Amino acid sequence: MERYFPVLTRCALFQGMGQEDIKAMLGCLGARFASVSKGAPVFLEGDPAQLVGIVLSGGAQVVQEDYYGNRSVLSILQPGDSFGEAFSCAGLEELPVSVIAVQDSQVLLLDCRRILTMCSHTCHFHSLLIENILQGLARKNLAFTQKVRYMSQKTTRDKLMTYLLDQAKQQGSAEFVIPCDRQTLADYLGVERSAMSAELGKLKRSGRLDTKGSWFRLNPVEQHGL
Amino acid sequence: MERYFPVLTRCALFQGMGQEDIKAMLGCLGARFASVSKGAPVFLEGDPAQLVGIVLSGGAQVVQEDYYGNRSVLSILQPGDSFGEAFSCAGLEELPVSVIAVQDSQVLLLDCRRILTMCSHTCHFHSLLIENILQGLARKNLAFTQKVRYMSQKTTRDKLMTYLLDQAKQQGSAEFVIPCDRQTLADYLGVERSAMSAELGKLKRSGRLDTKGSWFRLNPVEQHGL
DNA sequence: AAATATATGTTGGAAATCCAACGTGAGAGG
DNA sequence: CCTCTCACGTTGGATTTCCAACATATATTT
Q: Rg of chain A over CA atoms, in angstroms?
């Protein structure tokens, strides 16, 4: 447990708190520790929506499956990321999504009702926690706004390039790594993996970008004619 | 102003507060009143992101336009709905979206920084307001989850039917009205208006649904064979 | 290293979308 | 009543996606 405090202190939920404060809060919140192996669910669609999770190690994805079994990736979770708070804070009974570990992972599970209803003098950091959750939800809203922007592009190529340009901007460099493999990226952008792969091939051949695995580099566009 | 208190008491932001409490809060928050005519922007992409709006009358849409001028509708705002809090609470400098009035509308504008930083003894309802905003953001996250679910469907027909089935469920009846016209629905679902119209025609002819304007009725599917 | 599994790239025909153009009908205003 | 406008429906051909199948590359295991 101790080894994961560096992750928790960087976690959005606990910003502004010291290690001892966090340790005390985890007690208040009834935190439970869980190990999940690669490919196994942390939550399944239809599960009660009262728990909030924090990824301590490994990685996970929030996914939805439609009637035909098509997978849609809603968000990609890395160590320090939390998940599920939107559903419990909105008062939902059942989860409308699943959370799947994509690697062997450790997660921390908190009871959201304790967070929201805990009387504030029990723990000095209660209101700070609330504000951190609020800011986290606002950021997740932003992330959805971006995802919708990618998905609203007409062609596979435009969805891909809009995403990659955003990644370059966010990471502050034309060279960057993305947090997922090709299939996951395709399911996140809402495109066919094979079509996306074909577009990547074209973009590479035209010199617009280079990529290998999760590494990408966007190249400046050559001006022709002018 | 007085005439809009019924709207404000039903507004998610002010749940649990009486009319007098709200009146006092509006003072604290430096509320400003604004009239916007049909088609005019309330906010434009790039504007400073510190204001939160509440629709008092009329209606508005949160929209994004891409490089080619394609419009994407992120959410549809009706009286009582608030907008912009995700961007200010996430600490964004500039708005990444525009908010456009679709009818002559009245809106109330609040300064979000006052909401978040206002010292809590100034106003008893400060922490309640924070919790209301938190719940509102969680609900907006849910709304995005749903929108993404519609947009993730492969065909225009599936996007449309997934949306309509959700509406019927939310409104608790197979007969319902949607809060927008065909073009807006198409821009919300991320489909071509003409293709959507064609699908609606097919669905009508097959007896699967009836519609006129914003009114819809979903009909049970006939079982063949068995 | 060999064998296996998994990830990624490539291809071609069927299906769906995209787009522009046009037809129709309801409502607004003169 | 007429005209104008605007929302909605319809159509057809160019473009793009979709899907299954296969080829290649990379990682993992034995």
A: 20
Of B150, B168, B194, the residue at which a domain comes to its end is B150
Q: Are A130 and A91 within one domain?
A: yes
> Are B72 and B64 spatial neighbours (Cβ–Cβ below 8 Å)?
yes
Q: CB of residue B210 closer than 7 A to nucleic acid strand D?
A: no
Distance from CA of A2 to the nearest CA of B (A): 30
Q: What is the mean pLDDT of residues B113-134?
A: 77
Does A64 lie at the interface with B, CB-CB under 8 angstroms? yes
Amino acid at A189: L
| Residue B113, number of CB atoms within 10 A of its CB | 15
Q: Is residue B226 part of a domain?
A: no
Contacts of A91 in chain B (CB under 8 A): 135, 138
Of B72, B90, B162, the CB nearest to A148: B72
Burial tier of A176 (Cβ tally within 10 Å: 0-12, 13-18, 19+): middle
Out of B142, B158, B190, the one facing A86 most closely (by C-beta) is B142
pLDDT tens digits along B41-51: 999 999 999 99
CATH number at residue B167: 1.10.10.10
Among A93, A122, A150, the domain boundary falls at A150
Quick check: is A115 in a domain? yes
Query: Mean per-residue pLDDT for A136-145?
Result: 98
- B137–A contact, CB cutoff 8 A: yes
Q: Which of residues 141-200 of B touch strand D (CB under 7 A)?
A: 154, 181-183, 194, 197-198, 200
Stated pTM of the model: 0.95
- Report the CATH number at residue A89: 2.60.120.10
Residue B155: is its pLDDT beyond 60? yes
Q: Is B84 left (phi over 0), alpha (psi -120 to 50) or beta?
A: left
